[in-house]
Amino acid sequence: AKHDNFIVTPGGAVVGVDKGQAFKYFGEDRLSLDYHPNKVHGAQEPAYYALYRAAKAGKVKVNPYDALPVIEAFEKIPDDEYREMLRPVAEAAAKSPSKGQVAWWKRMEEFAARRLGRKPADGEVVEEFLRRACERKNNLRRDFARFFSEVLGLAVDFS
C-alpha cells in the first residue's frame, strides 16, 4: 500500500484502503524489503516497508506477534471456503476476452503448464490460481515468521 492508501479514523486508528492490486503480482511477489515492483512507475515505497525499515534501524518498535491474530484468522478459513471466495475473481479473468492482460494470468498459465507438462485449459489456469492462493494462505505463519526474523534481526517463532 502506498501512503495514500491509508485513512485515520476519528478514533485515531490507521486503516488500509484501496486494495486494487491485491493479486496483480501474484506468483512473482515475495515478502522482502527489496521487493517493490511499482518503483518502475515512480511509486513511493510501500508504507509498510517504510515502517519495517524504521524498525530494522531501531527507530520504531514493531511487535511481530501483533500479526499473529490475523494469520490465525486466515488459517481458520477452510481451503474449500477460501477457494470459493476467490473463484469469482479467477473465473472472471478466464471469461475475459482480454485475459492475457490480467496481470497474474500469464504467470498462473506458466505454472500450470509446468505442473501439467502441457498447455493448460482456462479452467486449469483458474485451478492453479486457487491452488496457489490456498498454498500461500497455508504458509502465512512460516513466511511471516521468516520475514519478521530477517527484518527485525530476532528469532520469531509463531508455532
Task: Describe the structure in your own words.
With 159 residues, this protein is mainly alpha-helical. 49% of the residues lie in helices and 4% in strands. The protein is built from six helices and two strands; from the N terminus they run ββαααααα. Strands 1-2 form a two-stranded antiparallel sheet. α3 (79-95) runs antiparallel to α5 and α4 crosses α5. The longest helix has 17 residues, at 79-95.
Architecture blueprint of SSEs:
Elements: E1 6-8, E2 14-16, H1 47-56, H2 68-76, H3 79-95, H4 105-116, H5 122-138, H6 140-152
Antiparallel strand pairs: 1-2
Helix pairs in contact: 3-5, 4-5
Outline:
This protein is 49% helix and 4% strand.
- Approximately how much helix is present in the residues? 40-55%
Principal-axes geometry comes out as globular
Mean pLDDT, all residues: 89
What's the arrangement of strands in the largest beta sheet? 1-2
- By DSSP (H or I, 4+ residues per run), the number of helices equals 6
Order of helices and strands: EEHHHHHH
Binned strand content: under 5%
Distance between the termini: 28 Å
Largest sheet: 2 strands, antiparallel
